[in-house]
Amino acid sequence: MTSAILIIYTGGTIGMKQDPVDGALRPFDFSQIQEEVPELKKFAVRIDSYTFDPLIDSSDVEPSLWTRLAGLIRNRYDEYDGFVILHGTDTMAYSASALSFMLEGLAKPVIFTGSQLPIGVPRTDGKENLISAVEIAAAKDADGHPMVPEVSICFDARLLRGNRTSKLSAEEFHAFRSINFPALAEAGVNIRYNRRVIRCPADWEQPLTVHTQLDTRVSILKIHPGITPEVMRIFLCAPEIRAVIIETYGSGNAISKPWFIDIIREAGALGKILLNVTQCNSGSVNMDLYATGKSLKEAGVVSGYDSTTEAALGKLFVLMGLSDDNAWVKTQLQEDLCGEISK
Ligand code: ASP
After folding, report:
1. Is 209 noted as a catalytic residue in this protein?
2. 231-250 pLDDT, tens per residue?
3. 254-304 pLDDT tens trace
4. Domains in the chain with CATH codes
5. Which residue's C-alpha comes closest to atom 1 of ligand 1?
6. Torsion of CA 297, 324, 317, 203, to 10 degrees
7. What is residue 295's three-state secondary structure?
8. pLDDT, tens only, 204-229
9. 126 lines ligand 1 (CB under 6 A)
10. What are 273's strand-pairing partners?
11. Considering only CA atoms, which of 188, 208, 81, 205 is closest in space to residue 141?
12. Is the dihedral of CA 60, 161, 339, 295 positive or negative?
C-alpha cells in the first residue's frame, strides 16, 4: 500500500517570491511550490496538501497557529502516514517544540521544514529540504512502522528532534542545530536513521491525545550584567505572569547580590513558577555546582536541565494549560516528557 503524506503549508521563505513593485518577499500558493519541485511526483507516495489562509511569515506565529496545526493533525491523523509542515524558519523551533508537547502519544512523523532561500531561486535549499522531509515522513521499517514517529525538523540534510533544536544562523543553510542531542537522521547518498535515539511509542496503537488548551502566561528573562531590580520585578512579579523562564549564565548561575535573590524569593512567595535554563547553547543547568545556583534552588527555582528555551516555553504552555496546580507543573517540568531534556 502506498504511503500518504499531508503537506501543511503555513508560509515562510520557502514559498515566497519577490514582489515586483517593492521587492519584498511575499507568499505564493502551494501549487506553485509543487511546480518548482517536480521530483515529488517521483515518490510512490500520495501527497495531499492543506494551505493555511492567510499564509504567514513565521515571525507572526502565535499559539493559536499551534492549536490549529494540532487540531488539523488530530482530524486527519488516521488518513495519513505522516505530516510535513512547511513553516518559516524564524520560529520553527518554537512551533516544533510546542507541537511535541501538544501531540501526546504521537506514533507518526510530523516533520517541519522550510528554507533560507525561496523555492523559485536557483540555489534554493527549499527543494532538498522538502524532498528529504517527504521521503523521511513516508519511510517505514521492516514491521511497517514509521521510521521517525516524532515531531522533528528537517533542514540541510539533517533530521533533528523538534524540541532539541534552535535556529542558530540567519544566513547559512545549516541554520538549525541540536547541540545537546544527536541528529535523528542524516541524508547523504542514503538516509541514515539513528535508531538508537529515535523515540518510538510503547504501544503503536495508542490513541493520539491532543492538548490544545495552552496557558501562555509566561515571561522570559535573560539575565545580563547591568540588569536592575526594577526590570527584574517586571519580568518576575507582574500579576499577569504565572511562570518565568530565567535564562541564566553557564551551568545555571545568576547574580549573587542580595537584591537579586530577594526578588526571586518575592516571586516565589507570589506563587510564580521559576524555571532555570542556561544561555549557553550546549550543556546543562546544574544548580548544585556554585553558590549562586544553590541559592536559586533554595528559593524554589526549578532546573530546566539542558532544555532549549523554545522547548521550555512550549512545555510550560501545555503543562499550565493542563493544570492550575503549580506544584504539579513544577514536578512535570523536571520530567523528560518527550525527549526534550537529558537528566
Ligand atoms: N521570516 C521568514 C519566516 O520565518 C524567514 C524564513 O522562512 O526563513 O517566515
Report:
1. no
2. 999 999 999 999 999 999 99
3. 999 999 999 999 999 999 999 999 999 999 999 888 888 888 999 999 999
4. 3-210 (3.40.50.1170), 218-333 (3.40.50.40)
5. 57
6. 100
7. helix
8. 999 999 999 999 999 999 999 999 99
9. no
10. 243
11. 81
12. negative
